Amino acid sequence: MAAVIEGNEESGFSGESGAARIQERLQKRHQARIEDAERRKEAKESHSVAEEKSEYFSIAFNRERACIEELLSSCSGAERAVVTEKLEEATTKTLQLQKFLNDSMQFLTQYELRQAQAALQKLQTSLSETKEEALPRKKFAFRTRTKATDKASAQDAHPLPRDEGTPAETGRTQVDGAAPAEQCGFSNMTSEFLTKTAEEIQKRDVLLTHLTNCKVHLFGSPSTLHLKHIDSCEILCGPVSSSVFVDNCRNSVLAFPCQQLRTHNTTDTQVYLHVTSRAIIEDCHGVSFAPFTWSYPTLEEDFTVSGLDRARNNWTQVDDFNWLAAGTPSPNWTVIPEADRKANWDS
């Protein structure tokens, strides 16, 4: 009997002391189970909240998209004044839908985000096509140069090399159309310095097409920016309130803030970007990105006019529609090393 008692004492479970230790261990085990259950509950609730947010986004996004599509459909056969009013409302709603998507990005999956971006892009295309059909424009016509302009061009037949001074502006040509309040830009130009003031482009669509070895400065806040068939150019633009579309661009340097960037068929091009949504590339290679750094005196005012969030820049979040391998970086785009980024835009 004494040996049994001695054995119990050695094992630490004798008397009140042993009972206390057992009770303490049971309490710790019970507390651990409670904490584990709480963690699982919180994780489940968090997952449920995310699902609820995603479901709410899907319902609200699709409802608003249907509303815009109905507005566009109702333009068919309507009077011009009615069409203009409906298109203005559709444009406003489309911009609001873009902002709603931007604000919801943090809880959407990659698949949901791409689906929404594709739907929004389709909606923007439908809006543009409806404008073209319901409010057709005359074909672009280039303004005839005056004799004074031709004389000035002759005087500038030997301009300074581009790296030594500002190229001559006498070759500047403005694209005219029947609806100048809606679109402006430059087309079919080679080795020119081209510029538009804020007053010329404010809240208008800007189209730059078939430019070679040109330097372009666009001040103010365009509604959209379209770049097509650009070769060996430097294009700097103020804050674009909605989207920038780039197609068939090569060996160029681009800089602009925008809500969304869509880039197609582009090679060996640097993009200095401020984007509040995401950048999308497709059928591209050799495209590199860095944060937007161009500056001019009224830049902050133009950011305010554009409605872009100055504090949000997702310039490193690039979706390559030709590269869907999860966890592996796309080989079609890179980040420009800090040491190689352009710092002086005046040269």
From TrEMBL:
Residue ranges annotated for the C-CAP/cofactor C-like domain, each copy included: 167-323
GO cellular component entries: cytosol
Family per record: Belongs to the TBCC family.
Protein name: Tubulin-specific chaperone C
Free-text function comment from the UniProt entry: Tubulin-folding protein; involved in the final step of the tubulin folding pathway.
Region (Disordered): 1-48, 145-173
The keyword Transport appears for this protein: no
Cited Pfam families: TBCC, TBCC_N
Cellular compartment(s): Cytoplasm
Subunit structure: Supercomplex made of cofactors A to E. Cofactors A and D function by capturing and stabilizing tubulin in a quasi-native conformation. Cofactor E binds to the cofactor D-tubulin complex; interaction with cofactor C then causes the release of tubulin polypeptides that are committed to the native state.
Comp. bias intervals (Basic and acidic residues): 22-48
UniProt xrefs under PANTHER family: TUBULIN FOLDING COFACTOR C (PTHR15139), TUBULIN-SPECIFIC CHAPERONE C (PTHR15139:SF0)
Species for this entry: Maylandia zebra
